[in-house]
What does this fold into?
Amino acid sequence: MNKTPAANSRLPQWGLTWLIQVQCFYQHLCLVDSEVLRNPPLRQAANRCVKFFTTYQTMTFTNSAEFLSYLQTVWENEASIIFDNEQEKWSEDFFQISKDRLKSIDPTKVSPGHKKNHYDELINSYVAELGVGLTQEQNEHLKNKISIGSVNTNDINAVCTTDKKGNYAVVVNSSLFTYLHKYGKLLTALANPSSVIYCNRKPAGELTKEDILEYIDILPKIYFEMDKVMGPMIHLDEQNTIVHMLILEMAEKFIIGHELGHYFKGHLDNSSNTELFLSQFEKLKNDNHAIEHEADDFSFELLHKCKNNSNPEDFNQMMINAGISLTFNGLNSLNPFASETHPAPIDRMNRLLPKTSHNIGIANSVAGH
It folds into this structure.
């Protein structure tokens, strides 16, 4: 399902200039407007995800779909199936507790199991579209060796991982997509406040940039602490909604492409790299930032291979740029710092975007907006 042609057919009436400005605004926002980064809340909880590394490496799954189901079920039900109470969940012994109990869990008997939802459908539609840019051999791997789906958890953003038998799974936190959706709309509103036609906090006509910056600031806290990304809600006018949704689609495809890059680049062939996360949290002590850059490059190139050739080249380029900008500005708002496993989000963004053919000098006047 390719949504670009229908949406793009409505763009010529007001041209490409605004889209270029928005893309540049995304790219430079976090560098020039420190207010957006006013002490973004960072998760203080201990990293619980590492427990899966030592646990499912000892288990045997029939196929990748079963492996994916296990990951989804455990992540979405860990509080009830692993820990007896909140004290256990956050205790210093959480690692040993979870390791022991996970061994006895049969995910097929856990209730409720993961229920397929529109995020799973969306992810699968993206994978099908990205498959256009893959080789026949890669598509065979995608069909037979990897299962991809969503999970509702606040432990990860996205992960590509494997079990001891060689079944692979890519799991994306559905809340990350929701977060980028809300974050992207707020950035669009910040660049163009008059585009807001509804806000659940105050009348749209009374919204100021200070209000929007406040809404942006509270989103990370909501993402970390709640099962669903709620908070401020805005609606954009029709034209800005179309552009926002196209940019969001590129951002979401880039995330999936990044995780596929870990697989196709052989990063998981080394047992020490079994878990590779797009998220900002440190998982395994692997200081090889080159792995993340290589996965970024794979996704960047894949998006270009999948571009809609019926669209103007400038349009395709700007959509990819803007999607990458939204992805890394969103991750930057959650944590702007580099870790031992991942480079800083803004560094990753600035490394990719100079590869594009566009001169982004126009951004100076836009970013100073």
Q: What stands out?
A: Residues 4-43+175-367 form one domain. The chain is about 55% helix and 5% strand. Confidence is low (pLDDT under 50) at residues 1-54, 271-287, 356-369.
